[in-house]
Structure to design on (752 residues):
């Protein structure tokens, strides 16, 4: 199968103007044309982290310069630890020092951290300049780069400061995944499992059947996974851009996931933390009578087969639940969880996407997971 | 005239949902009801500065608590000098420490600095929570609180970081102006003159004829001025929320105004700087053949009659023009100016709201103002 000739586009509607996800092997080469047609900016900040800069920035900037664009590369130290207000201010100041005006655009080249941070810089630079997302990790390509969520962490928790700022375009080039370390590839698969768990049982089965090919970064299997996950993610965003309803389902695994990610001091990758979170939240759903029995075991088995961690056991249950309280999803004092009803179907009841959970139930569920020889 | 019975509402459409400006003597008492009907939040952060906190916060918070709201007062040191990313982060952290979630709302109680900063906190808190603007200065009441512009300054210039975040409501209570120092009242009149200069020659004449009553803070004259200015400002916002066209006219006086405000180290009040900026930009417009001859002298005479400064002479022309380059309005290397064609009519030509100006022209215009015995 010759991937280089394929060019698929997925349209995402948005209140501030819809955008397209360009999915193709080699799509990076089309970035200058996409920038010209969607942003019309003559000057760009190429925001990235130092790891990605060494791998891809020169090529991306070279293509943009060859098309006549004035490009400034701004790289910050990699990792969730640096997704802070301080880095946001430093990138902003670098753009100001470069004399970039309201007519400039931002290109976010990197993983979820870069996309979130560069997107927030674009959202707030002179009250908003366009951003084009160019994800370089599987996680960013299938999830974080789509939907306009941007933001940074504070010492109190993840993504507590941010904005909805839809990109003008997403350039999804699976060829960029060739340089991705294996653990980052696996972490990205966790979000694909999430997409299946909330929306598509057949997709879950396909992931399970193709686990070996995916873990080996087979081009064909990865392209199929990227395509299907982008469709699912874009579908939720199209239905509910500002997460007032069904888009909440994409938070499955993320309430406990964010908590253990923070508690690990960001030693856990986001996708690893989400894997742990999905198992724990499936078990919580079973306890609450929301989720079909056996779902936690099933999702744990699938994730383990992909080489992902599933045990929250190293974290104290009360500390985890305490950390969930810093989450944005705390409403009126109780923490909201987006759960699944069964594998392939998200929600807590028809047209109900999340449920307020008492701390005691969350603690008991985490304790039970540890104590009874269940998946964790 | 018994003001207490009047309650006027001006509707402002906005892409994210329109809102109303509630204009009435004593409107502050209606804040709890307005919050309930527009935000539905049970918990609020009342964000203000220390000066306003001492004057009005207890009364505002008391009314809200009496209505069953959980209110946290967060006050920061007053002045443009504190409209920074650091203050934004500190207010955000205070809200996080108070356990406020995505279901909370922000009430911005204060002048333009408070409105801009608290609005930006609301725009970015957990990707956006509602804000209700309660302006306590004339400038904020007739201009800054309306239209959704929020943001903070950086060392490089004013309002370089921010977001469009329309309020859920604006509560304009002229009774709050009774505590406003005289120089702040005068500074606010500069924005009213701007409204007249860009849109309403008859209003300019009315301001000129009522200068003494306005400077003496006559309730009747002030209420009339607030009403007419709100109508003009809201009209521009309604036509062009995101400042892609006619809303640019509201920047008349603000390019040079922001520059001298920054160069003064914020010794000049914003309205004072805008007064200087309007005279300088009218003179620039005359030099460029855009603005009718005599407009600079006329606007200077009107502003001087209101006790406002009009001379940019203490600032070096090259330094002023250099400072304008940090402005958001720099596009493609040249600085954009929103000018007037004559007193009462903004724009540079039919359906053209701003013009790119070469630095040399701006410098020459400022030098000429100083040299030829003209108003500056």
């Amino acid at each position: 199968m010759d991937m280089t000739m394929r060019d698929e586009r997925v349209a995402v509607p948005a209140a501030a103007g819809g955008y397209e996800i360009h999915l193709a092997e080699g799509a990076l080469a089309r970035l200058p044309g996409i920038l010209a047609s969607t942003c019309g900016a003559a000057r760009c900040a190429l925001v990235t982290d130092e790891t990605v800069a060494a791998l891809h920035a020169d090529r991306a900037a070279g293509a943009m310069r060859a098309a006549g664009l004035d490009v400034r590369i701004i790289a910050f130290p990699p990792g969730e630890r640096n997704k802070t207000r301080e880095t946001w201010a430093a990138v902003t100041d670098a753009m100001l020092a470069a004399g970039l005006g309201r007519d400039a655009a931002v290109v976010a080249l990197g993983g979820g951290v870069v996309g979130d941070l560069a997107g927030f810089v674009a959202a707030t630079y002179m009250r908003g300049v366009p951003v084009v997302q160019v994800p370089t990790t599987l996680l960013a390509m299938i999830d974080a780069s789509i939907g306009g969520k941007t933001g940074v962490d504070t010492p109190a928790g993840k993504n507590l400061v941010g904005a909805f700022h839809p990109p003008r375009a997403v350039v999804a080039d699976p060829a960029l995944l060739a340089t991705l370390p294996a653990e980052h590839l696996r972490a990205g698969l966790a979000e694909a499992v999430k997409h299946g768990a909330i929306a598509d049982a057949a997709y879950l089965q396909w992931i399970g059947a193709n686990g070996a090919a995916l873990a080996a970064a087979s081009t064909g299997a990865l392209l199929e996974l990227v395509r299907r996950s982008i469709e699912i993610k874009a579908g939720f965003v199209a239905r509910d851009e500002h997460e007032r309803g069904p888009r909440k389902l994409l938070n499955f695994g993320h309430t406990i996931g964010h908590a253990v990610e923070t508690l690990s001091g960001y030693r856990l990758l986001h996708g690893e933390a989400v894997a742990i979170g999905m198992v724990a939240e499936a078990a919580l759903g079973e306890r609450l009578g929301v989720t079909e029995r056996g779902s936690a075991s099933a999702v744990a088995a699938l994730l383990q087969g992909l080489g992902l961690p599933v045990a929250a056991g190293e974290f104290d249950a009360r500390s985890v639940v305490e950390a969930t309280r810093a989450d944005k999803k705390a409403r009126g004092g109780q923490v909201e969880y987006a759960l699944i009803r069964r594998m392939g179907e998200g929600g807590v009841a028809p047209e109900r996407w999340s449920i307020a959970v008492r701390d005691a139930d969350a603690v008991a569920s985490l304790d039970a997971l540890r104590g009874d020889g269940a998946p964790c």
Summary: The first strand of chain B starts at residue 8 and ends at 12. The two ends of chain B are 40 Å apart (CA to CA).
